[in-house]
Design a protein that fits this description.
Blueprint: H1 2-17, H2 20-28, E1 32-34, E2 54-61, E3 86-94, E4 101-105, E5 111-113, E6 119-121, H3 124-142, E7 148-153, H4 154-163, E8 167-171, E9 175-177, E10 182-184, E11 187-191, H5 193-201, H6 210-230, H7 237-250, E12 251-254, H8 259-268, E13 277-281, E14 284-290, E15 293-298, H9 300-311
Parallel strand pairs: 1-12, 2-7, 4-13
Antiparallel strand pairs: 2-3, 3-4, 5-6, 7-12, 8-11, 9-10, 14-15
């Protein structure tokens, strides 16, 4: 969604700057590209009846690095063996007409096969093999082909949230997270970067645990995309520039996504709104303890059928 949001803002920026070509080249050149992020060897084919849309895999990584690892502001490596895991995973399909985006969250505790490592939580795939192993793991799980990859770390998340002036979030009920030692008060509030990171990381103290955390992440992302778009004003090019620079400093994308690809998205997404995005979560059978770890067992058959429905345009079945 952040990549989609970036392209949507670039399309609007063309109205401010006088041309989508100029805006996508100017800001596209500032976006950090990840070299060789895709797995080698055979990869899933797109299903018969594919709608011609584009599938993104977006990851939020829980790097404990004291220095940023994503975006143009990065001063440390994106990946080092065992140093970071994928804390958030979202598979996003942008329809061929670029009028809708469908997002499926994959819980970090999903127990899945990881090539060369047996079975483990899906978040370990990034820790063990960086983007290529993460993408391979998701492709094998979903039997879908990932076209593009985007990633943001905790530093980038906080910085981007602060750069747009905070993000409004409606907290459903009072809760306390004993792990983060934080209280969350019911009601609508504008969260800064530190508050927002704590909110999207919370799972302790919530009745639904990990599933409630995913709902928080989806809720926040929808609001963030809306706030980013609001940062583009025909009468305020400085605010627009500040918004775009904040995104480029925070987010890294795959090296196959050229400025031309961004331009094509920008042209098609000028009318895109956060309300056009639909969210779902990978279907879960049950949770259980495996080798002393809390794990979620997914219904892989249903997951694959649901995502195939998204890719082939069978929208009524996509969210069930």
């Amino acid at each position: 969604m952040l990549v989609v949001g970036l392209a949507a803002v670039l399309g609007l920026l063309g109205l401010v700057a006088g041309g989508v070509w100029w805006s996508t080249n100017h800001y596209g050149d500032q976006v950090t590209r990840i070299p060789d992020p895709f797995p080698r060897g055979p990869r899933p084919a797109k299903p018969a009846g594919h709608d011609g849309g584009t599938t993104f895999l977006l990851a939020g990584v829980d790097s404990r690095s004291k220095r940023p690892t994503t975006g143009s502001g990065a001063t440390a490596r994106l990946w080092r063996y065992g140093a970071q895991r994928s804390d958030t995973l979202m598979l996003v399909h942008l329809s061929a007409d670029e009028g809708s985006a469908y997002t499926m969250s994959i819980p970090r505790d999903s127990w899945v096969p990881i090539a060369g490592h047996g079975s483990a939580k899906i978040n370990a795939s990034f820790s063990w093999g960086g983007p290529p192993l993460l993408i391979h793991t998701v492709e094998q799980l979903t039997k879908t082909r990932v076209d593009h990859f985007g990633v943001i770390d905790w530093h980038g998340f906080r910085a981007l949230t602060d750069a747009v002036g905070g993000v409004p979030v409606t907290v459903a009920e009072n809760s306390y997270d004993p792990q983060q030692h934080r209280h969350f008060t019911a009601g609508t509030q504008v969260m800064n970067g530190t508050q927002a990171l704590a909110y999207v990381r919370q799972r302790h103290g919530l009745p639904g645990g990990e599933l409630d955390r995913i709902k928080h992440q989806q809720q926040f992302l929808r609001s963030l995309v809306g706030k980013v778009r609001d940062g583009v004003r025909l009468t305020d090019p400085l605010a627009t520039d500040r918004t775009l620079r904040a995104i480029t400093r925070a987010v890294s994308i795959d090296d196959r996504m050229s400025n031309g690809d961004l331009r094509g998205l920008a042209l098609g997404l000028r009318g895109f709104d956060a309300a056009d995005a639909r969210f779902t979560t990978a279907p879960i059978v049950h949770s259980q303890m495996i080798r002393g770890q809390y794990a979620l067992i997914l219904d892989r058959q249903k997951l694959r059928a649901r995502w195939r429905a998204v890719e082939t345009g069978d929208r009524p079945g996509a969210g069930r």
